[in-house]
């Protein structure tokens, strides 16, 4: 298995084959990447797997939502 995602894999992951749109989708998903000299995003397979496995960078400070139902006791 390759160290980096292929262009076909990036297209499947992001739903687009345009470089700028791929970068936008990767940003939105919290998947880290570098940009090569041609402007294409380069994504480490391990980074994509970590995020897709549920450990997204933007989830680090997330808290479980709660609802205060105390008013039902009155």
Number of extended strands: 2
Which percent range fits the helix content? 25-40%
Distinct helical segment count: 3
What's the story with the biggest beta sheet? 2 strands, antiparallel
- Domain count: the total is 1
Portion in beta strands: 5-15%
Radius of gyration over C-alpha positions, nearest whole angstrom? 18 Å
List SSEs in N-to-C order: HHEEH
pLDDT under 50 segments (min length 5)? none
What coarse outline follows from CA principal-axis ratios? elongated
Backbone structural class: mainly alpha
> Mean of residue pLDDT?
87
Terminal CA distance? 61 Å
Protein name: DUF4224 domain-containing protein
InterPro entries: DUF4224
Domain DUF4224: 5-47
List key phrases describing it.
36% helix; 3 helices; 74 residues; mainly alpha; two-stranded antiparallel ribbon
Polypeptide structure, described:
This protein has 74 residues and is mainly alpha-helical. It has one domain. The protein is 36% helix and 5% strand. The chain has a two-stranded antiparallel sheet with strand order 1-2. The longest helix has 11 residues. The protein starts with 6 loop residues before the first helix and ends in a 22-residue tail after the last helix. The mean pLDDT is 87.
């Amino acid at each position: 298995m390759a160290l980096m995602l292929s262009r076909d894999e990036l297209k499947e992951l992001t739903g687009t084959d345009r470089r700028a749109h791929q970068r936008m989708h990767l940003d939105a998903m919290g998947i880290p990447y570098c940009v090569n000299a041609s402007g294409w995003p380069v994504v480490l397979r391990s980074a994509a797997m970590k995020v897709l496995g549920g450990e997204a960078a933007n989830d680090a400070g997330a808290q479980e939502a709660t609802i205060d139902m105390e008013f039902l006791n009155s």
